[in-house]
Automatic annotation (TrEMBL):
Compartment(s) where it occurs, according to its Swiss-Prot or TrEMBL record: Cell membrane; Membrane
GO annotation (BP), single: calcium activated phosphatidylserine scrambling
Keywords: Cell membrane, Glycoprotein, Membrane, Signal, Transmembrane, Transmembrane helix
Protein name: Anoctamin
Chief site of localization: membrane
Length: 893
C-alpha cells in the first residue's frame, strides 16, 4: 500500500469535501463549511478529499446523484495516476478546478468506473439558485404565458388523413405548447410561467449553463497569466472527457419515472431506417440537442425538399436528351459513313498521333447529345430561378424557427467571449461604445499582423492548389502522349482511333481520380492550417471563430473542388492554335484539346467522379469509422453480463464530438450545393444525385449523433451563420457560370447561329431552316502540304472557324467565328440580366418574415413590456402615493 499524502484540514460544504490546501486563492473558509478532522488518504483515493465518492446504486439509466434527487447536469472523466507516474501539476489543476466549481455553487459527486477502476466519473449538479443566476447571465428566454393568438388553419387540412402518415406519431411525440417568452430575470421569478421547478429549465438548458461555468473555471493564475476552462484541460489530458448525458439508451425505453426517453423517441421516429419517409421532429431535436443542431437539420431538410423539384425537372431534361440522341441531326452526320466516314481529322499531337475519321467518335457524339441539347438551356435558366426561390423561402422558414425557438433577439452582444480570448486579455483600451476601459488580447497593430498572416497563408495554399491543377494537366498530357505512341497510323483502319478514343477516356478518368485524391489530401493538410490560423487570430466569440474559420475553409474548398471543373469548362481546348501553329504548354507539351465529343463530356465525367467519390468517402468517414471505433472500444472493455453499467459510463464509451461540431456537415452540403448550381448546365442529373444523397444524409447524420456519439453540448444559434452569405454568393456566381458553360463549353450557340443565319433549305427558302450540313460547316480545312507529315492526302479537317487555304486571309478566323462570338456574348449578357432581374423581383416580392410571425413577435414584445416592466412601474407609483398624493387623479385646486 502506498501512503499517502496528508492533507491539511478538510471542510465539508454542500455535500462535497475539499481541502484548504487546494484553495489558496480563498481569503477565508466559505460560509457554511463544516470542519472535519485531519485525514490521511491513499493517493489512488485522492479524489475523495475534494468530492465525495458514491457507490453505484445499480440503476443503469439513472440521471441523478446517488441520492436520486439531484440531477446530473454534466460529467467530467479523468484517470487516477499511479504513485510512480503521478503528475503533480495535473493533480493540482484538478484540485483547483474542483474548488472553483464548488466556490461558484456547483455540487459534485464522484463514482468509480465499473469497467476500469482507474477511471473516475465526476458528476456535476447545478442547484436552483445557480440555475436562475446563470439563466439571467446567458439571457435565456423563458415562458411568461401561453400563446393566445389564434393559429390560421392550413388550406391543405383536408389532406391530413393522408399527410399524417408522413409525420412522427403524435401519440409518442406530442406537440409542444406554445408560449410567449422573455429573457429570464431572477428578481421577477413570479412573473414567469413556473409549474415545476425541476422541469422549468430543460436538461439542454442546464447542460448549456453547466458548460458555460466549466469553460471558465480557473485552475492556474500566475501574475497576469490566467489559465481556465475545461477545454484546455481536455487538450492537456488532465481530463479524458467532458459531456452532458443522454437520457436513456437509444434502442431501449428507460423504466425510470423521471426519464423523458427523448433519445429513444428520436431514434424510433427520426433516425431509424423504417422512418426514412417521415418528416423530422424538429422541435424535439431542438429541445434535446439545442438550437444549433436543430437549425442544421431544419436547413438540410428544407434544402432536400426543394431539391425534389429541381431533380424532377433535371431528370425530365436528361430523359429528353436520351430519347433524342438517335434523332439529332449533328449526331447522325457524325455517324453517317458517307459524311463522318469521309471526313479525315487532324492528329491531336505532333508526331505520335494518327489521322482519324470523324465517324470514329459516333458513340461519344451520341452521349454528348444527352447533355448538350435545348432542354439543358431551359434547365439552366430554371435552376437560376430555383436557387433564388430556395434562398428566399428558406429565409421565411428560418424566421418562423427563430420565433418558435426564441432566437429572434439573439444578438452578438449577448454571446459571451470565448475562454481562450478572455485568458489573453492583457491589454487595455477604451471601449468605443461605453467609453469604459476594457481588457483586450491585442493592440490594433497586433490584430493587423494576425489578420495579415492569416490572409497570406490562405493565399499561399490557394496558389498551391492551382499548382496541383497544373501538375494534373501535365499528367494528362504526358499520359495521353504515352498512349498515342502505341497507336498505329493506318488511315484505312478505324480500329486504331477507337483505341485512341479509349485511351483518351482512360486518361480523363484517371486524371479525375487523381484530382479527387489530391483534393482529399490537401483538405486534411489545410484543415489543420486553417484551425491554427484562426486560433492565432483569437476571435472574441465562438460565432466570430466559426465565421472566420468558415470563410477560410470555404475559400480553400472552393478552389480545391471547383478549380479542375472550371479548367475543363472554360480553359481546356480554348487556346490550342491550329495545325500549322499549335500552342505549347511549358514550351514542351502541345496544349490540351477537348475530347472529340467536346469538353462537356469531360466536365460531366469530372463532376460524376468528384460528387460520387466525395459522397462515398464522407459516408465512410462519418459512419463506418465511428461505428468501428465504438465496436473496438466495447470489445476491449467488455465486462461480464452480470455487471450493470451506469448511464454516464455508457456515454463515455461513445465517440466524442469534434471541436468544430457541425462545421463539416455544413461544408459538405454547401460544396454539394455548388456542384448542383454552378455546373448544372453540363450535368442535369446533379440535383437527382444530390437528392438521393441527402435523403440518406439526413438519416445517417441522425443515426450517427444519436447512436454513435456522446450528447453534444447544446448551443444557441439564430441562423446558419456565415453559410447564408456564402450560399447567396454561390447563387449569384451560378448564373454567370451556367451562362458561360452554355456559351463557351457546349455547342448550343454555334448550332443556333447556324440554324438561324446560315442554314436555308432548299434553294433559298428562308421560311424553312434545317441543321443539315452543320458538321461540315463547323470544321475548317487545312492543306496537307502545309503540314510537316507528308501523306497521299490533299487536306484534312479540324474543329475551328477559319478561312480555308487559298483564301487571301487563309487560316485566319472567318466571319462565322465572329458571328458565333457575338452571339455568345449577347447570350451571356441577355440571360444574366433577365435572370438577375427575376431574382431581384422575387427577392422583393417574397418577404423574409411572414406576416403571422411579425404579429406574434409584436405581441410577445408587448406582453414582455407589460408583465415585466409596467408591473414594476405600478409598484413604484404606489410607493410614491403617500408622499405626493394620488397621481392617477387630475390636479386639485
Amino acid at each position: 500500500m502506498h501512503v499517502s499524502h496528508v492533507f491539511n484540514t478538510c471542510f465539508l460544504l454542500g455535500g462535497a469535501v475539499y481541502s484548504q490546501e487546494f484553495l489558496p486563492t480563498y481569503e477565508s473558509i466559505p460560509e457554511g463549511a463544516v470542519e472535519l478532522p485531519d485525514i490521511t488518504v491513499e493517493l489512488p483515493d485522492i479524489a475523495s478529499c475534494f468530492y465525495p465518492q458514491a457507490e453505484f446504486n445499480g440503476k443503469s439509466d439513472s440521471l441523478f446523484f446517488n441520492d436520486g434527487v439531484r440531477r446530473i447536469d454534466f460529467v467530467l472523466v479523468y484517470e487516477d495516476e499511479d504513485m510512480k507516474e503521478i503528475d503533480k501539476n495535473r493533480m493540482f489543476q484538478k484540485r483547483k478546478v474542483s474548488a472553483s466549481l464548488m466556490k461558484m455553487g456547483m455540487e459534485l459527486e464522484a463514482a468509480r468506473s465499473v469497467v476500469d477502476e482507474k477511471l473516475l466519473f465526476v458528476k456535476v449538479h447545478m442547484p436552483w439558485d445557480m440555475l436562475c443566476t446563470y439563466a439571467e447571465v446567458l439571457h435565456i428566454k423563458m415562458p411568461i404565458q401561453p400563446n393566445d393568438l389564434s393559429t390560421t388553419s392550413s388550406t391543405f387540412n383536408f389532406l391530413s388523413c393522408i399527410t399524417k402518415h408522413f409525420y412522427p406519431s403524435e401519440d409518442l411525440i406530442a406537440k409542444e405548447t406554445e408560449y410567449f417568452t422573455a429573457p429570464f430575470e431572477k428578481d421577477r421569478l413570479e412573473y414567469f410561467y413556473v409549474k415545476d421547478r425541476d422541469l422549468f429549465f430543460t436538461p439542454s438548458m442546464r447542460s448549456r449553463m453547466a458548460y458555460y461555468i466549466l469553460s471558465r473555471a480557473p485552475y492556474e493564475v500566475r501574475g497576469n497569466i490566467k489559465k481556465f476552462g475545461v477545454t484546455k484541460l481536455l487538450d492537456g489530458g488532465v481530463y479524458k472527457a467532458a459531456y452532458p448525458l443522454h437520457d436513456c439508451r437509444f434502442n431501449v425505453r428507460s423504466k425510470e419515472d423521471e426519464c423523458p426517453n427523448e433519445r429513444y423517441l428520436l431514434y424510433n421516429e427520426w433516425a431509424h431506417p423504417k422512418s426514412f419517409y417521415k418528416m423530422q421532429p424538429l422541435d424535439l431535436i431542438r429541445k434535446y440537442y439545442g438550437e444549433k443542431i436543430g437549425i442544421y437539420f431544419a436547413w438540410l431538410g428544407f434544402y432536400t425538399a426543394m431539391l425534389a423539384l429541381a431533380a424532377i425537372v433535371g431528370l425530365a431534361c436528361f430523359i429528353y436528351g436520351y430519347m433524342t440522341q438517335e434523332t439529332s441531326t449533328w449526331s447522325k452526320e457524325v455517324c453517317d459513313p458517307l459524311i463522318g466516314g469521309n471526313i479525315v481529322m487532324c492528329p491531336q499531337c505532333d508526331k505520335e498521333c494518327t489521322y482519324w475519321r470523324l465517324n470514329s467518335t459516333c458513340e461519344s457524339s451520341k452521349k454528348l447529345c444527352i447533355f448538350d441539347n435545348y432542354g439543358t438551356l431551359v434547365f439552366a435558366v430554371f435552376m437560376a430561378i430555383w436557387v433564388t426561390v430556395f434562398l428566399e423561402f428558406w429565409k421565411r422558414y428560418q424566421a418562423e424557427l427563430e420565433y418558435e425557438w426564441d432566437t429572434v433577439e439573439f444578438l452578438e452582444q449577448e454571446e459571451q467571449p470565448r475562454p481562450e480570448y478572455e485568458a489573453k486579455c492583457n491589454h487595455e483600451r477604451i471601449n468605443p461604445v461605453t467609453r469604459v476601459k476594457e481588457n483586450v488580447p491585442y493592440t490594433a497593430c497586433g490584430r493587423c499582423i494576425r489578420v495579415s498572416l492569416g490572409i497570406g497563408t490562405v493565399l499561399f495554399w490557394i496558389v498551391l492548389i492551382l499548382a496541383s491543377v497544373v501538375a494534373i494537366i501535365v499528367y494528362r498530357l504526358a499520359v495521353f502522349f504515352s498512349f498515342s505512341t502505341r497507336l498505329q497510323s493506318d488511315l484505312k483502319e478505324l480500329e486504331p482511333f477507337k483505341e485512341y478514343v479509349t485511351a483518351q477516356m482512360a486518361t480523363s478518368v484517371t486524371a479525375s481520380i487523381i484530382s479527387f485524391v489530391v483534393i482529399m489530401v490537401l483538405n486534411i493538410l489545410y484543415e489543420r492550417v486553417a484551425i491554427w490560423i484562426t486560433d492565432f487570430e483569437l476571435p472574441r466569440t465562438k460565432t466570430d471563430y466559426e465565421n472566420s474559420l468558415t470563410l477560410k475553409m470555404f475559400l480553400f474548398q472552393f478552389v480545391n473542388y471547383y478549380s479542375s471543373c472550371f479548367y475543363i469548362a472554360f480553359v481546356k481546348g480554348k487556346v490550342v492554335g491550329y495545325p500549322g501553329q499549335p500552342v505549347y504548354l511549358l514550351g514542351k507539351y502541345r496544349n490540351e484539346e477537348c475530347d472529340p465529343g467536346g469538353c462537356l463530356i469531360e466536365l460531366t465525367t469530372q463532376l460524376t467522379v468528384i460528387m460520387g467519390g466525395k459522397a462515398i468517402w464522407n459516408n465512410i468517414q462519418e459512419v463506418l469509422l465511428p461505428w468501428m471505433k465504438n465496436l473496438i472500444f466495447r470489445y476491449c472493455t467488455r465486462v461480464g453480463s452480470e455487471k450493470v453499467i451506469p448511464r454516464w459510463e455508457q456515454d463515455y464509451q461513445l465517440q466524442p464530438i469534434g471541436k468544430l461540431g457541425l462545421f463539416y456537415e455544413y461544408l459538405e452540403m454547401v460544396i454539394q450545393f455548388g456542384f448542383v448550381t454552378l455546373f448544372v448546365a453540363s450535368f442535369p442529373l446533379a440535383p437527382v444525385l444530390a437528392l438521393v444523397n441527402n435523403l440518406f444524409e439526413i438519416r445517417v447524420d441522425a443515426w450517427k449523433i444519436i447512436t454513435q456519439f456522446r450528447r453534444m453540448v447544446p448551443e444557441k444559434a439564430q441562423d446558419i451563420g456565415a453559410w447564408q452569405p456564402i450560399l447567396q454568393g454561390v447563387a449569384i456566381l451560378a448564373v454567370a457560370s451556367n451562362a458561360m458553360i452554355i456559351a463557351f463549353t457546349s455547342d448550343m450557340i454555334p448550332r443556333l447561329v447556324y440554324y438561324w443565319s446560315f442554314s436555308v433549305y432548299p434553294y433559298g427558302d428562308h421560311s424553312s431552316h434545317t441543321m443539315q450540313g452543320y458538321i461540315n460547316n463547323t470544321l475548317s480545312v487545312f492543306d496537307i502540304q502545309d503540314f510537316s507529315n507528308k501523306i497521299s492526302l490533299s487536306y484534312f479537317r479540324y474543329r475551328d472557324f477559319r478561312y480555308p487555304p487559298g483564301h487571301h486571309r487563309q487560316y485566319e478566323y472567318s466571319i462565322y467565328y465572329w458571328h458565333v462570338i457575338a452571339a455568345k456574348m449577347a447570350f451571356i449578357i441577355v440571360v444574366e440580366h433577365i435572370v438577375y432581374l427575376t431574382k431581384f423581383v422575387l427577392s422583393y416580392v417574397i418577404p423574409d418574415v411572414p406576416y403571422t410571425v411579425r404579429e406574434q413577435i409584436k405581441r410577445e414584445k408587448y406582453l414582455s413590456q407589460v408583465i415585466l416592466h409596467e408591473t414594476n412601474l405600478k409598484l413604484v407609483t404606489k410607493r410614491l402615493k403617500p408622499l405626493g398624493g394620488d397621481y392617477d387623479q387630475p390636479n386639485q385646486p
